[in-house]
Amino acid sequence: MCRNIRVLHNFDPPTTDDEVREAAVQFVRKVSGSTRPSQANTEAFDRAVDEIALATRRLLDDLVTKAPPKSRELEAIKGRERHEKRMEREVRIRTADG
């Protein structure tokens, strides 16, 4: 999965529409292979972002869980720890090849 797209389900406070839109933009960028669409493709790009954001919001609103809501702060800490481990692995791999 693209590392820039984050889990949005089951947070307290709930996921905002801005967070949903940011995830939709990241998805469309990944799928299209473009961070900034050309002028000719801007309308299609923006329409795709709107449609994906709407579908994502609908999905998040419809999902149910018995799990307690997650903390954004705790999830951010876990993400940083995963990143640090990934970087440590990269350094070990690169220094072993040298």
Mind explaining what this structure looks like?
- By secondary structure, the protein is mainly α.
- It is built from three helices and no strands.
- Helix 1 crosses helix 2 (42-62).
- The chain has helices at residues 17-32, 42-62, 72-97.
- 6% of the residues are buried.
- The model has no long low-confidence stretch (mean pLDDT 91).
- Helices cover 64% and strands 0% of the residues.
Helix count equals: 3
The biggest beta sheet reads: none
- Helical residue percent band: 55-70%
Structural class, from secondary structure content? Answer: mainly alpha
Mean pLDDT figure: 91
Taking pLDDT < 50 over at least 5 consecutive residues as the criterion, the unreliable ranges are none
Apparent shape: flat
Q: Per DSSP, what share of the residues sits in E-state strands of 2 or more residues?
A: under 5%
Order of helices and strands: HHH
Distance between the termini: 29 Å
Rg on CA atoms, Å? 17 Å
Number of strands: 0
Describe this structure in a few short sentences:
64% of the residues lie in helices and 0% in strands. It is mostly helical and 98 residues long.
Note the main attributes of this structure:
mainly alpha
Question: Secondary-structure map with pairings?
Answer:
Layout: H1 17-32, H2 42-62, H3 72-97
Helix pairs in contact: 1-2
